[in-house]
Structure formats: structure tokens, C-alpha cells
Amino acid sequence: MMKPCPPIVCPPVYEYHDCYVCREVPIVQPVVRVNRRIVVNVPKYYVKPEVKDVVVDPGCPGGC
């Protein structure tokens, strides 16, 4: 009859079951609102009225 062999002991094998838990991390994001007034050059014409007296001479009447 044979002698029984001693058992072989292996190192343990680990099995993991991960469970994730949410944790809020505050993040501060500053927002700067800028009201801008943008200058646009627009031409504006000023009219100075001028009056002239003009004489129109039709010439001497001719006969028909």
C-alpha cells in the first residue's frame, strides 16, 4: 500500500466585488457677465441751405 501524499496548500485567491458610492465634490466656476457698449461711427450730414437768384433770359422773341 502507498503512503498518502501530503496536501499541497496554495496561496489564497482573492475575488473582489466592487461597489461604487457617489461623493459630490464642489467645484466653483465663477462667471463674469460684462455689459459692453460698442461705439460705431455713423456719418450724420448737416445741410446749410443756400438761396440764389438766377435770371433766365429766353432771348428776343422771333417771328414764326
Outline the structure in words.
The termini are far apart. The model has no long low-confidence stretch (mean pLDDT 93). The protein is 0% helix and 0% strand. With 64 residues, the chain is largely without helices or strands.
> Which oligomerization state do the chains in this entry correspond to?
single chain
Distance between the termini: 164 Å
Number of strands: 0
Low-confidence stretches: none
Main sheet overview? none
Count of DSSP H/I helices: 0
The portion of residues assigned to helices is under 10%
Q: What class would the helix/strand composition place it in? A: little secondary structure
Q: Write down the overall geometry.
A: rod-shaped
Radius of gyration: 53 Å
Strand % is under 5%
Features:
0% helix, little secondary structure, 64 residues, single chain
Précis, in short:
This protein is largely without helices or strands. It has no helices and no strands. This is Spore coat protein D.
List the helices and strands and how they pair.
Layout: no helix or strand
